[in-house]
Amino acid sequence: MIIFPILILISFVLYIYYKVMIVRSNDPLTQEYLNSKSKLFLGSFIFFFGINQYVFYQTKLSLFVGLVFITLGIFQAQQGWKASKHYRAEFQKHRTSPQS
C-alpha cells in the first residue's frame, strides 16, 4: 500500500509549510489562520500514520497504537478544521474592510 506513505509525506510537508509561513507573517490574524491550517495537516499526518502503522505490521500492539494515533489525529484535524473555518471568515472580513 503505497498510498498511505504518500499521504503521510504530503501531510507532513504541508504541516511544515504552514509552520514556516507563520514565522514569515507579521499579522496576528494571518498567523492564527495559518496555525489552524497547520493543525489540520498535523491531524491528517497523525491519522494516516496510525492507519499505516496497523496496515504495515498487523499485530495487536500496532492495532492499539494505531487506534490511539487515529483518535488523536481525528481530534487534531477536527479542531484545526473548526479553527480554520472561523479564522477564514475573520480573514475575509479583515480583507474586505476599508483600511484606516
In words, what does this structure look like?
The chain has 3 helices and no strands. With 100 residues, the chain is mostly helical. It has one domain. Helix 1 runs antiparallel to helix 2 and helix 2 runs antiparallel to helix 3. The longest helix has 37 residues. The N and C termini lie far apart (54 Å). This is Membrane protein.
Q: How would you summarize the topology of this molecule?
A:
Layout: H1 3-24, H2 28-57, H3 60-96
Helix pairs in contact: 1-2, 2-3
Protein name: Membrane protein
Transmembrane segments: 6-26, 38-55, 61-78
Organism: Halobacillus faecis
The count of helical stretches stands at 3
Kindly, what is the distance between the CA atoms of the first and last residues, rounded to a whole number of angstroms?
A: 54 Å
**What sequence of helices (H) and strands (E) makes up the elements?**
HHH
Considering DSSP H and I runs of 4 or more, what fraction of the residues is helical? over 70%
Largest sheet: none
What count of domains describes the coordinates?
Answer: 1
Low-pLDDT runs: none
Rg for CA atoms: 16 Å
Mean pLDDT: 92
What is the SS-derived class?
mainly alpha
Taken from the alpha-carbon principal axes, the silhouette is elongated
Tell me the number of strands.
0
Approximately what portion of the residues adopt beta-strand conformation?
under 5%
Protein name: Membrane protein
Keywords: Membrane, Transmembrane, Transmembrane helix
Transmembrane segments: 6-26, 38-55, 61-78
Organism: Halobacillus faecis
